[in-house]
Amino acid sequence: MKIPCGESCNFIAFFFITVQERLMALNLEAKKAVVEQVNAVAMSAVSVGAAEYRGLNVEQMTNLRNSAMEADVSLRVVKNTLAKRALAETGCECITPVLSGPVILGFSQEDPGAVARVFRDFIKENKDLVVKGLGVSGEFVDADQLKRIASLPTKDQAISMLMALMLAPTEKLVRTMNEVPTKLTRVVAAVRDQKQ
Length: 196
Fold this sequence. Notes:
The protein is an alpha+beta fold. The chain has two domains: 7-152, CATH 3.30.70.1730; 153-196. The chain is built from six helices and five strands. A five-stranded antiparallel β-sheet has the order 2-3-1-4-5, with helices on both faces. A hairpin with a 2-residue loop joins β4 (130-136) and β5. The longest helix has 41 residues, at 155-195.
């Protein structure tokens, strides 16, 4: 049975093409939005990490996200092609060569070692997470350096270490100046005891 094709067939074909174009446009707009969001995070990040999450279940991913939130680390699961576009011309661009497979990206805005600490602590209980690489201040760091980067001091620890270094000479000067009167008192006491 042949259906006569008149204006109704043209309308249906036009309608189908229009709906398809709109779906593609929405999909393109959604992709652009994802790229913009990840780019905004990457522009202000001091460190980034990429890890393959193949084999993790929903509960494990939830635990990873929770530990990341506690450490002020932003985690993103993004298609690799979109991630490469989002990271272009940012300090996190150094991580793009390792973006392959199912990858989760972690961004830290203040603490260079935060992403590495989150991944390191998570790997202790979940061996399925495989770190592919890290980026710290625009420099790529291999995954085998994870422990070294994770041991970097936090901002508060770094400030306290700097303050201790700055105070050390002053404390030594005060101790030295304090010893002079103490020694003088001992000498006077020894002379007094000798004369008696």
